Amino acid sequence: MVVVTITALTVLAIGAATHWVRYGQLEASVAQGTEQEAGELQRLLDRGPASAEADAMAGPPAETAPEDAFDSRFDSVEHLLWTFMSTSVPAPDEVIVGLVDGEVRYTYDGPAGEGLSHDVIEEVVREHGQPDRTVHTIGQHDGRDIGFGLIHVDIDGDASEGYLVVATDITQGRQEILDSWWRYVMISLLFLVAASAVAYYLIGRVTAPISRLREATESISVNDLSGRVEVPSQDSDVAHLAENFNGMLDRLQEGFEEQRQFLDDAAHELRTPLTILHGNLELMDEHDPHDAAETRDLMLDEISRMNRLVDDLLMLARSRRPDFVRPASFEVSAFLDDAFARISALSGQRRWRVDSRCEGLLVADRERLMQAVIQLAANAVKFSAEDDTIAIGASWGELDDGGRRLQLWVRDTGAGIDVKDQARIFERFGRASAGRTVEGSGLGLAIVEAIARGHGGRVALRSSLGAGSQFTLMLLEGGPSPEPAETPVESLS
């Protein structure tokens, strides 16, 4: 509404200024005509009286001529005025009148002179005439707008005072400007009404997504983050805003779900060790040193297990944060040597080996990758027997876009994983059927999968019962991609 009002006032102001200028130009044309007549009068005075040409002109009749009309010079004001009017023809909208000592002596009427009496001319001269100056004034007479130009006339040696009056009817010119103004106002109003309707329609279409965005924000609460804004089909800032808003809701919903899952997992998994602690404390014989020592050792083990569980849950909760991985460039071969040195110390009853190695730089979080490799190796130790082989290796693979990805694996010749369990083991607290009696929180592979996802990569699994398993981390050479892979876990069995 404010914009429409400002626009209307601006349009009206421009129109008013334009028509005011036209009024000024009309009045200036009257003054210009008067100055032209004054110039011609001065030239006539400088040349002297016209000869016999005066009789041939259509001015005042010859019988009104003064006695010195045909002398060689102008000796009187009356002589000059009569000669000028005898040699001049007024424009259709002009009247030329000559006055001597305040009285009309000569009149040359055109169509504009109708109804313009001598009394009116004489009154205008008395009110506005000034010696030695040309005066312009505008007045109304009989409903008409008349522009008057008063040219003072005097002759050396003649005491008479004369005026040459040029009266111009500007009624029609002013009326045309006024009619033009009203046409401008009507057209402007119609234009503003049409423009306002179009603007209202367009603004409604543009702001509709914003209104829906507002409604969506009002409907969102901690208990329900599922609402989304409809994204307009056209490519616009509003569409981008809606997309960004939906993306923000996705991240918020994901964060709330992570927190809720963290709390659910913590409550579920901590209940058992807390129950064990509570039961053992109730049954402990505080007067029996041996029983107290056993209970103490059991409690320390359970507390350590709870600490590991909480640490793992916190790591999974933080895995969705942007700073979960901090990529940097490092040499793959040196990383492989360091990883082998660490994992081979996990058990002296396994056969450790390096399948293959490769050279080159990888952009990734070295510490997170080391954590994933150690976790995979620890799992391999748990699900393998004495003298089984556990190996690590790395190789480069070519991509369709010309880039490369690193395949970093840990394999073992242990028990293997049944096909029906291979997807479940990557879930939180997921375990294979054969591994339910193995000690652990059930979060190790979920952490490995989170590390791979944080790098924009995935985990591939190849396994069969009785033949062992191979877990492969697939990572882009240049670092994490902007969007992690949609399928972070891939089964190759």
Automatic annotation (TrEMBL):
Coiled coil: none
Occurrences of domain Histidine kinase (ranges): 265-479
Domain of life: Bacteria
Transmembrane portions of the chain: 181-203
Keyword rRNA-binding: no
Annotated segments matching region Disordered: 48-68
Keywords on record: Kinase, Membrane, Phosphoprotein, Transferase, Transmembrane, Transmembrane helix, Two-component regulatory system
All residue ranges annotated as the HAMP domain in the record: 204-257
GO CC annotations, alphabetized: plasma membrane
Enzyme's top EC category: transferase
Molecular function (Gene Ontology), one example: phosphorelay sensor kinase activity
Catalysis: reaction(s): ATP + protein L-histidine = ADP + protein N-phospho-L-histidine
PROSITE patterns with a match to the protein in the record: HAMP (PS50885), HIS_KIN (PS50109)
Compartments where located: Cell membrane
KW Transport (keyword) present: no
EC number(s) given by UniProt: 2.7.13.3
Cited SUPFAM superfamilies: ATPase domain of HSP90 chaperone/DNA topoisomerase II/histidine kinase, HAMP domain-like, Homodimeric domain of signal transducing histidine kinase
Protein name: histidine kinase
Lineage, opening ranks: Bacteria, Bacillati, Actinomycetota, Actinomycetes, Micrococcales
